[in-house]
Structure formats: C-alpha cells, structure tokens
Design goal:
It is a single chain. The chain is mainly α and about 575 residues long. The chain folds into four domains: about 90 residues, no CATH class; about 80 residues, no CATH class; about 325 residues, no CATH class; about 70 residues, no CATH class. It contains 29 helices and four strands. The strands form two sheets. It has a two-stranded antiparallel ribbon. A hairpin with a 2-residue loop joins strand 3 and strand 4. Helix 11 packs antiparallel against helix 23. It is globular and about 85 Å long.
Length: about 575
C-alpha cells in the first residue's frame, strides 16, 4: 500500500499536522524494515491512536492521558503516552537529577499525605483533596452557627469556616508542590519571574555563608553552650579525618543532604519553583542555580550545622533519658514517653560514641518504627534550629508574584517565629546566651562583609551592636521593616537614627529605595537592564555607574573573596576601555 493510498484509506481529509505525522510514521516504519503495506498500516494505526487528541491539548496536560480516578496526579496515574518520543523530544526531560527533584517535590508529599490521612475506605482522590477533612471542619462550624444568636453572627461563622478550608487547601497545595501552578503552559510573565529569581540568586547570594555565621548561636540557644560545642561542634572537629560514620548516620536519617538536594538555600532564596524552564536560557539559569549552593559553600555549611545540631541533640536526649528525665520538646516533636524510652533502649543497645560523637546507629535497630519516629523528630527540630522557611510564610509569598517581590525575605519571616517568638515563649534551653552569641557573631559577619566588599568598617560600638542585632536574625522581620523605613525616610526614622548612628544598614548599602520596596527583580535587575540598553547611546553617555550596574547583573559577581577580583576587574575595564 503506497502512502497516498494510506491517506485515502484514512477516509477523511487530513490536516497538515495529521498528514505530516502520518508521513513521518510511515517513513519510520519503512526504516524499521517493514514492507510498504505493513508500513502503511502501522502508520494508520499510529494515527488512529492520536486522532482524537490535538498537540496543544496533549502538551497542556503534559502529554499524559489518565486512566485512573480523577484527582490522582502524574506518578499515580495509569497512562498512555499518545505521541512517539522522537516527535516531542524537545519537550521531554532526560536529566535523571531533574527527575529525582521532581519526584521529591511532587510524589513524596502525596505519599506522605496518603500515609497520614488515607485509609482503605477512602478513595485516594478524596484523601489528597482533603474532602473528608473539609467536611468535618465545615460540620464543626455549622454546629457553632446553629448556636449563634443572630443570622449575621451565623453567616460570619460559616464564612470563617470557609476561610479555614481555603487556607488549608493552600497549605496542602504548597506541600504537594502544585500551589499557584497554571493549568496550561506557564505564561511569559511567570517564566520571566522564575528566571529572574534564579539570576538574582547567583548574582546576589555569593556571601551567604558569611551571613549565616549567627546560625552557630541558634544552636547554643536550642541546646545550651556546653551541648552545642562539647557534643556538637567539638566531636565534628575531632572526627574531621573520620567523618564517614557520622555522615552515614545523618544521611540514613535524612539529615545533612543539602549538598545533594539544595533544600535549605532553595527555600531561603525562593527559587524552589515547580515548573521547569522552556528555553535554553531558562534551563541554563536553573542549572547554574542548582550548582551555586555548592560553589558558594552554603550547602556544605548547612550540612555542617545540621550534623552538629543532630549530634548535640542526640547526646542531650540520651543523657536525659538515662536519668529518667523526659525532655518536654519531645512531646512537641510527636514522641510519647513510651516511644522516647524505647528509643533510649535501642540507642543504648546499638549506639556508640566515636571521639565524643554520640551515634544512635538507627539502621541496626530491631524497632524500625522507632527509628523512623526518631529520625522524623530530629529532622523537624533541625529545620527549626537551622531555620528552613516553611509553612509559616503567607500563601502570597508562594505565588510567583509574591516570591519575586519578596525574594530573600522568607528567612527573616521564618526567623521571627522560630527565633524571636520561640524565645519569648520559653521554647529555648538557653535563650540569653543564644541571643548574645548570635548578636556577637552578627557583628563579626558585618566586619567580614565590609572588608570583603572594600567598604569602611566603623569604629563606633553602637554601629557594631546595631549591625549585630540586624544580621543575627533575632528580631526577624522587625529589622527588615526597620531597614526599609530607614531607607525610605532618608535615614530620619528607625533604630539607627534613634541610636544616633549616621551610617545606613550595611545589608541595604547597595539597595536602592525601589529595590527595598519591589525586591531584586523589579527594583534592581529590571531597571539595570533598561539602563544598560540605553547607556552609551547619543542621549546617555556611559558612566561609571553603568559599569557597576553591568557588573551587578553578572552571576558570581559577589562571591566571597572572588568579588575582590571582580572589583579590580570592574575598575580596570572602566578606566582602560570606557573613560
């Protein structure tokens, strides 16, 4: 059967897309060694499978036609891919690393939700949609509404219940990685925002390790000075040449994995977008952003902090339980006294001490249920002490616009709850010493950052105190608001003017008023790009500030120590080639 007869046999007028597809499948079949008749029939069979689905529809649904119950997402659906791979190769993801990230972001949360809330009687769709939970919540609010004295009060109660359901839906979707995702392909604006957030991260976060030095004080606040240094950092120093057992135990419990997952820095930098870029530029920025955490050493720092905290906490809990003392925070972490005692018995039987490092050796426990419970508690406390922004963020900050406008502010917001409020509520073991050490280390971070940037280091003690408080994170979002107020008021209002300090906040030294308000994309990157497009033209002579604007758009331009070479290169290029 010839190709023309194949088309006639189709029994209708084919569109150009269908005709091209049929022609392509016919040639592929011939190349496989089929004769003309068999090749024609196979081409028709292939066309018949997709004739009811156009390419736009398929692409908008990620190329998958579900056979499972509606509500189940990608990995849980039985599906047939209706287009041969070679026709949509540019749209397929072939990176095993990227696929692993997608699995971690989408599949794992669904599995955990089903484990926590699912049962044999409830359809997975209803569990993932929180249908039953929502009904129970609204039923409680309806009971309260029945007891209301007026209709107005009853309606207010019902509306409050609806808001609770909507908020839970938002948090649920954020956990599942689908919050604020478009139904079809991402718009240009959404893709632009995601790309710019990645660019902002690699061009502005080069000194993040120096800024993270106060993390050490947070560990003192949580575990106490002797525990933090004697059982945490001390054993790490002693075991630098023999880190393998410690590293294996941490990773077995799902801790200290930032060099692999980029988990903490992605949340701090607001680059944990769930949609992949379409163009080579977007993919390139994603790739660089994915590697930048290891280049800047922040991932290694995060692993170090989490490991030190885990060792200190394990030592403290073990010693307390050996004396019959139950640490109340274990209840907050979801462990009962019986479970804690069981954990102690397993740790006593299988654990060991290596150069001062208390290891529980959970992989050898007979009670793996207790091993999982302990690992979950340890991870939860680790995320609180080594702060990872989480569900305390407003939902607006998880929308693509909110992420862009408020980029890099998630950490300060989370620190407000996990440091300032936790200290005020008495959740910390040694709050005073923790605050003093965090403030002192914040002052040290200020001095180092000033030196690295080639800026003057103040000799005024008040400046060091203010900078220490600012960079420590102990006041969280309050200092962020204070710094913005100082910038917009021309340094007339705020903490520093009240203290008689003339210098502005060092963290805001290179930020304009627009950047302080609109974030690094719309307040800095976009204006810089517009400025560079017009610089050097007849109307606008190229100035030194234009060279600085160009430099600030470059990836790695403020990487610690490396930035000093960039400073010298900027000065040389401007003096030799522009002036």
């Amino acid at each position: 059967m010839s190709l023309s007869n194949c088309i006639k046999k189709a029994g209708k007028s084919l569109s150009k897309v269908d005709a091209d597809y049929l022609n392509n499948r016919y040639k592929i079949a011939l190349n496989k060694g089929l004769d003309d008749v068999a090749a024609g029939n196979q081409a028709l069979d292939d066309l018949a499978r997709i004739i009811d689905s156009d390419i736009d529809t398929v692409l908008s649904k990620t190329g998958v036609k579900g056979k499972g119950k509606q509500g189940l997402r990608s990995p849980f659906k039985a599906r047939n891919f209706l287009i041969p791979d070679e026709l949509v190769e540019p749209f397929l993801e072939n990176s095993a690393e990227q696929l692993a990230h997608i699995y971690l972001r989408h599949t794992v949360p669904d599995i955990e939700i089903l484990k926590a809330f699912g049962d044999a009687k409830t359809a997975p769709k209803d569990t993932l949609d929180f249908s039953i939970i929502n009904k129970e919540i609204m039923e409680d609010f309806r009971k309260k509404a029945v007891e209301a004295k007026t209709e107005k009060e009853a309606n207010k109660i019902i509306k409050e219940g609806q808001k609770v359901v909507e908020a839970m839906a938002g948090v649920r979707d954020r956990i599942r990685g689908v919050y604020d995702l478009p139904e079809g392909s991402p718009t240009f604006g959404r893709r632009f925002n995601a790309a710019m957030r990645n660019l902002n991260y690699v061009r502005l976060m080069g000194g993040v390790v120096a800024s993270s030095i106060p993390d050490i004080g947070k560990q003192v606040m949580a575990e106490g000075f002797m525990r933090a240094f004697g059982d945490g950092f001390g054993p790490l120093v002693k075991n630098l040449a023999k880190m393998k057992p410690i590293r294996e135990e941490m990773r077995h419990m799902g801790l200290a994995l930032d060099t692999i997952t980029n988990g903490r820095i992605e949340a701090i930098a607001d680059i944990n977008s769930y949609a992949l870029g379409n163009t080579k530029v977007e993919r390139g920025l994603e790739y660089v952003a994915n590697k930048f955490g290891n280049i800047s050493l922040i991932n290694q720092w995060n692993d170090l902090m989490k490991t030190a905290h885990a060792l200190a906490m394990q030592s403290r809990v073990y010693d307390d339980l050996s004396k019959g003392k139950f640490d109340n925070r274990l209840s907050r972490l979801g462990l009962s006294e019986d479970e804690a005692q069981g954990i102690y018995e397993m740790a006593k039987k299988h654990g060991r001490v290596e150069n001062g490092a208390r290891l529980f050796n959970t992989k050898d426990w007979e009670r793996q249920d207790l091993a999982f419970a302990w690992a979950a508690a340890l991870r939860k406390e680790s995320d609180r002490v080594v702060i990872i922004p989480g569900q305390e963020k407003p939902l607006f900050m998880s929308r693509h616009v909110g992420q862009t406008l408020l980029q890099f502010r998630s950490f300060m917001l989370s620190s407000t709850q996990r440091t300032m409020l936790a200290t005020a509520q008495g959740q910390e073991a040694n709050p005073l010493a923790g605050v003093l050490i965090m403030t002192t280390l914040g002052s040290m971070a200020y001095a180092f950052k000033q030196w690295d940037a080639g800026r003057e280091i103040s000799d005024d003690p008040k400046v060091w105190v203010a900078e220490g408080i600012d960079r420590s994170g102990v006041l969280g979002i309050l200092m962020e608001g204070n710094n913005t107020l100082e910038r917009f008021s021309g340094h007339n209002y705020g903490l520093r003017p009240m203290m008689g300090i003339s210098q502005p906040a060092s963290r805001f030294a290179s930020r304009s008023q627009y950047e302080a308000l609109l974030g690094p994309t719309y307040g800095s990157a976009a204006p810089n790009m517009l400025r560079l497009f017009t610089a050097g033209s007849d109307e606008h002579e190229w100035k030194e500030s234009d060279t600085t604007a160009l430099r600030r758009m470059l990836p790695f331009q403020n990487l610690t120590i490396f930035r000093q070479g960039v400073d010298a290169a900027e000065k040389y290029v401007h003096e030799e080639f522009i002036e």
